[in-house]
């Protein structure tokens, strides 16, 4: 049998005729992972049906990367992922990683643009990614059942260990399959369809679900001064403290909102904060508004301050803080130090000066909660990796596979979550089609 015809066949003796049957696979969820899984399974010869609860597939893909879809990243390693699956990422990416993903999309006709390692479609339109996936599913004859919500997967009692899984839908009855790939996503951005129903299905199959929390999201803080600085974007180093212990530190563009802190550096550790808050640990972020780098090494230490106090001693404190960082921040820090804008710089006591200097380097804000799943880009938690094989097959119910965000793995910002969707979708899709 040729490679193109790697249809998995089971032969039945029907009288004197031999009947050839293609392996029948259901994919639950037509997101990034589900579409990749469907395409790979169909390429391996399977007859594939995708069940999608929305009226169209790939809704979330359209909103990724601010509409440009940062679909992967050239820098890829286990350190970019959290969750019980993070340790397996590198081995799995050897089977289908960044190189295979670029080749896959190029083969579908999409040119790729590399922006400092962050990969986008050259069209800079997320719709391109979805379009080429849709065209490929059409070419391969994949059946797509939109507006169809799956509620359950059952194994027929009389069935052998593998095969004969029944997919139960909300209002379109049920159908039997040889294998089922659960790619329902997590709980983030439920307006795009991922409302957590996949976790309920996995739980009914006997799987443990690692608690699910919002990730890649903003943090809401207790302090009441945020309205004063809302809208400010600035370079900062942020350190996350859990119960007084520094657990991670990230530098990047901080965005201040009327309720707290946002921006990429906040997103990167928001899932760590989310789990800490869930355990009711004290969660604090230290903000250094004058982070050190090669260019400003002498612009933030004692020499800088001593000289400034000396040279600008006749100025008002409003004038004194002007030019250090964004002025709104300077004025806020004055207020927090109990210094009036009209006070003379030369008249301040050394302790007042030190207090102000410290706030520029280490403003502590107390996190009350993360933003909700509606505003989160991904959810952390999900199906425990300890209960899936290296082919992403359930150890509880053979024939059931998992792909994408439904699994307990989440990446940092920068194309890592979509890469996980492509890689896990490809691995699960191929394995489901080849499994006999
Ligand atoms: C605003 C935003 C921007 C993002 N930007 C990026 C980015 O630039 N780069 C990046 O790497 N990641 C980004 N992400 C994250 C990334 O989009 C997701 O991690 C990824 O799409 C997850 O793919 P998935 O297929 O596992 O799940 P989803 O894309 O959520 O797809 C799951 C699908 O399953 C369907 N479904 C759910 N339950 C059922 C059911 N019971 N029956 C039938 N169908 C069901 C849903 O309707 C949905 O279509 C972004 C996310 C958001 C919200």
What does this structure look like?
- This protein is an alpha+beta fold and 436 residues long.
- It has two domains: 3-213 and 379-434, FAD/NAD(P)-binding domain (3-Layer(bba) Sandwich), CATH 3.50.50; 219-370, no CATH class.
- It is 30% helix and 27% strand.
- The model is unreliable at 1-19 (pLDDT under 50).
- Flavin-adenine dinucleotide binds at residues 28-34, 51-54, 59-60, 63-65, 69-70, 149-150, 183-185, 188-189, 192-194, 197-198, 377-378, 404-405, 415-418, 421.
Write the layout of secondary structure elements.
Blueprint: E1 9-14, E2 17-22, E3 24-28, H1 32-43, E4 47-52, H2 59-63, E5 72-73, E6 81-82, H3 89-95, H4 98-107, E7 112-115, E8 118-121, H5 126-139, E9 143-146, E10 150-155, E11 165-169, E12 174-177, E13 179-182, H6 197-204, E14 209-215, E15 219-221, H7 226-229, E16 233-242, E17 245-256, E18 260-262, H8 264-278, E19 283-288, H9 302-311, H10 317-321, H11 327-336, H12 350-361, E20 363-370, E21 378-383, E22 400-402, E23 410-411, H13 416-434
Parallel strand pairs: 3-4, 3-13, 4-9, 13-22
Antiparallel strand pairs: 1-2, 5-8, 6-23, 7-8, 10-11, 11-12, 14-21, 15-18, 15-20, 16-17, 16-19, 17-18, 19-20
Helix pairs in contact: 1-5, 1-13, 3-13
The site of flavin-adenine dinucleotide (FAD) has 39 residues, from helix 1, strand 4, helix 2, helix 6 and helix 13.
């Amino acid at each position: 049998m040729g490679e193109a015809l790697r249809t998995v066949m089971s032969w039945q003796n029907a009288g004197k005729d031999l009947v050839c049957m293609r392996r029948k696979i259901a994919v639950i969820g037509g997101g990034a992972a589900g579409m990749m899984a469907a395409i790979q399974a169909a390429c391996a010869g399977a007859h594939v049906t995708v069940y999608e609860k929305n009226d169209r597939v790939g809704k979330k893909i359209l909103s990724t990367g601010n509409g440009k879809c940062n679909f992967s990243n050239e820098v890829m390693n286990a350190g970019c992922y959290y969750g019980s699956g993070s340790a397996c990422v590198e081995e799995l990416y050897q089977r289908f990683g960044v190189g295979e993903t670029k080749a896959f999309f190029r083969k579908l006709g999409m040119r790729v643009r590399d922006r400092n390692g962050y990969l986008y479609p050259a069209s800079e339109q997320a719709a391109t990614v979805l379009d080429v996936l849709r065209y490929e599913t059409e070419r391969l004859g994949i059946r797509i059942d939109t507006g169809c919500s799956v509620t359950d997967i059952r194994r027929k009692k009389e069935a052998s260990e593998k095969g004969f899984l029944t997919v139960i839908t909300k209002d379109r009855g049920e159908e039997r399959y040889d294998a089922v790939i659960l790619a329902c996503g997590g709980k983030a951005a439920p307006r795009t369809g991922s409302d957590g129903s996949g976790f309920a299905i996995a739980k009914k199959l006997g799987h443990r679900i690692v608690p699910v929390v919002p990730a890649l999201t903003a943090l809401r803080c207790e302090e009441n001064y945020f309205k004063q600085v809302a809208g400010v974007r600035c370079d900062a180093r942020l350190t996350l403290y859990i119960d007084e212990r520094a657990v991670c530190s990230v530098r990047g563009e901080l965005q201040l909102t009327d309720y707290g802190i946002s921006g990429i550096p906040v997103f990167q550790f928001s899932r760590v904060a989310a789990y800490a808050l869930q355990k009711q640990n004290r969660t604090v972020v230290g903000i250094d508004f004058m982070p050190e780098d090669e260019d400003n090494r002498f612009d933030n230490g004692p020499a800088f301050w001593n000289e400034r106090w000396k040279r600008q001693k006749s100025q008002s404190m409003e004038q004194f803080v002007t030019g250090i960082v964004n002025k709104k921040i300077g004025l806020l820090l004055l207020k927090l130090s109990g210094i009036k804008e009209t006070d003379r710089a030369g008249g301040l006591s050394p302790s007042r000066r030190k207090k102000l200097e410290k706030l520029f380097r280490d403003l502590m804000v107390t996190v009350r909660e993360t933003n909700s799943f509606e505003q989160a880009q991904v959810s952390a938690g999900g199906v425990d990796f300890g209960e899936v094989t290296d082919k992403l097959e359930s150890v509880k119910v053979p024939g059931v596979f998992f792909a994408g965000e439904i699994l307990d793995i989440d990446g940092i910002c920068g194309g890592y979550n979509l890469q996980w969707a492509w890689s896990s979708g490809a691995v699960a899709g191929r394995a489901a089609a080849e499994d006999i």
